[in-house]
Amino acid sequence: MKIDYREFGKKKIALIWLTNEEQQTETARVNVLTERLSQEGYITVIYRSGSKDLETYTKGLLRQNLSAT
Q: How many domains does the chain have?
């Protein structure tokens, strides 16, 4: 698990990055962490690793974006 803390003026954001394995094993820990961060005034954003092929889906997204212009 990786956590990045960012501040934009008065807004505080905590970015939490989870691997596939951590999504299965760290649920209780993440829940406690997000509650604590919320009490400290942070907005939490959780990024979860996917199970799809990143290269294939990125190429498809890029093709779609290029064809829309």
A: 1
